[in-house]
UniProtKB/TrEMBL annotation:
InterPro entries: BTB/POZ_dom, SKP1/BTB/POZ_sf. Signal peptide: none annotated. It comes from Crotalaria pallida. It is a peripheral membrane protein. Pathway: Protein modification; protein ubiquitination. This is BTB domain-containing protein. Residues 51-121 form the BTB domain. GO terms for cellular component: endomembrane system.
């Protein structure tokens, strides 16, 4: 049978450390709760007293603005942080956002608060644009991973054109690889047959990109 003895001084030191750790844990819990605020799109907290920035989707005038907090946007996006620090000194900011829908804007802001998002293809495209524009790299990578995993003969062409338009190299390379690996299925798809008839230029672009990436060409 072994017994462990501990001196009074050591016991007091351990107690101090224990209290310090408990305090640190409480502080971390507080910070987590702060970051995971209820979504700013919840109408119960869309109150000017609590929010200090408004985002307006220019291409979707039928929907209302999205209210948020500068501290949350700036803490997750270096672009927002620089914007608030250097260019927008007024207390109430209005930011007009182009080329995305209200739904995507709302989902983007909600992600910055909760780190949660429900994706489908169109939403992933919209959120990728936001994530790249505002340098939210973890969301950008998540959208890319989702779009790559969802590649099929129906959406491969739209994913290809999106990748080219937004200079998304990883997504483009993965899409080209999928097209080549599934070329027989791809060239028989309704989307490809229609594309050859309506926009042969994109077909030529796909072939050219396959050549330049040393991939097998389509039959």
């Amino acid at each position: 049978m072994f017994s462990i003895c501990i001196c009074k001084k050591c016991f007091e030191i351990l107690n101090v450390r224990k209290e310090a750790l408990r305090h640190n844990i409480d502080e971390l819990k507080f910070e987590i709760n702060f970051i995971k605020l209820s979504s700013p799109i919840d109408p119960t907290i869309q109150i000017d007293t609590f929010t200090d920035v408004v985002l307006i989707p220019c291409s979707d005038s039928s929907s209302g603005p999205v209210h948020a907090h500068k501290i949350v946007l700036g803490s997750h996006s270096p672009v927002f942080k620089a914007m608030f620090q250097n260019y927008m000194k007024e207390s109430k900011h209005v930011i007009k956002v182009a080329d995305v829908s209200y739904v995507a804007l709302r989902a983007f802001v909600n992600y910055l608060y909760t780190a949660e998002v429900c994706l489908e293809n169109q939403m992933a495209f919209g959120l990728f644009i936001f994530a790249k524009r505002y340098q939210v790299n973890h969301l950008k990578a998540y959208c890319e991973k989702f779009l790559i995993a969802e590649l099929n003969e129906v959406n491969a062409i739209s994913t290809y054109t999106f990748s080219k338009e937004h200079n998304a190299k990883r997504l483009l390379d993965s899409t080209l690889t999928w097209i080549v690996d599934n070329k027989e299925q791809f060239v028989r798809s309704e989307a490809y047959v229609k594309l050859k008839r309506t926009n042969p230029g994109i077909v030529a672009d796909i072939l050219e990109d396959c050549f330049s990436n040393d991939l097998l060409i389509l039959p």
